[in-house]
TrEMBL record:
Biological role stated in the UniProt entry: Purine salvage pathway enzyme that catalyzes the transfer of the ribosyl-5-phosphate group from 5-phospho-alpha-D-ribose 1-diphosphate (PRPP) to the N9 position of the 6-oxopurines hypoxanthine and guanine to form the corresponding ribonucleotides IMP (inosine 5'-monophosphate) and GMP (guanosine 5'-monophosphate), with the release of PPi.
UniProt keyword annotation of Transferase present: yes
Full protein name: Hypoxanthine phosphoribosyltransferase
Naturally occurring in which organism (per UniProt): Paenibacillus lentus
Family annotation (SUPFAM superfamilies): PRTase-like
Length: 179
């Protein structure tokens, strides 16, 4: 285990099983359609890569980078589009792939942006959900794990851009972000 990690909350195997299950549910949900699957960078990059391998319907991919946390464990409350989509979403069935919903600010902002661009439908799949963090009314259509009110890293999730490569979900030692 990494030295800055206090505890492994979700193992690599638990994540793998959940991603397979979500992929199967999404394959049923989108049967007969051709969704545009949007990865919210950077956090969702590993989940996106693993998830789309488990979805059996034809689909297209795009990527959008937004950031609200920076080098902090609290959202700045201000969402910035760092990289926009390459694809037009007008009339498309959009599936947003997100790693975690905490305050809900990132996705409520993005849903607004996408609806103004006249999507046919938009749904959210998130691997992790931290309901205790919510400051706006925003729920995923599908989610993997409910997370307690602790700052987690790994499987794409960072603290100050570190720990994204850990293959499990860990809780950081408090001294790492208090120092
Ligand atoms: C994190 C995470 C989600 C968002 C969730 O992204 O990946 O996108 O925050 O928080 P919220 O529900 O409170 O908005 P971050 O802004 O840290 O950028 P990153 O994905 O590049 O790490
Ligand atoms: Mn993110
Ligand atoms: Mg981050």
């Amino acid at each position: 285990m990494h030295n800055d990690i206090k505890e492994v909350l979700i193992t690599r195997e638990q994540i793998q099983d959940k991603v397979v299950e979500l992929g199967q549910r999404l394959s049923e949900e989108y049967a007969g359609r051709n969704p545009l699957v949007i990865c919210i960078l950077k956090g969702a990059f590993i989940f996106m890569a693993d998830l789309v391998k488990e979805i059996s319907v034809p689909l297209e991919l795009d990527f959008m980078a937004v950031s609200s946390y920076g080098a902090s464990t609290k959202s700045s409350g201000e969402v910035k589009i760092v990289k926009d989509l390459d694809t037009s979403v007008e009339g498309r069935d959009v599936l947003i792939v997100e790693d975690i919903i905490d305050s809900g600010l990132t996705l409520s902002y993005l849903i607004d942006v996408l609806e103004r661009r006249k999507v046919n439908s938009v749904k959210i799949v998130t691997l992790f959900d931290k309901p205790a963090g919510r400051t706006v009314d925003l729920e995923a259509d599908m989610s993997g794990f409910v997370i307690p009110d602790e700052f987690i890293v790994g499987y794409g999730l960072d603290y100050a851009e570190k720990y994204r490569n850990l293959p499990y979900i860990g809780v950081l030692k408090p001294e790492v972000y208090n120092s």
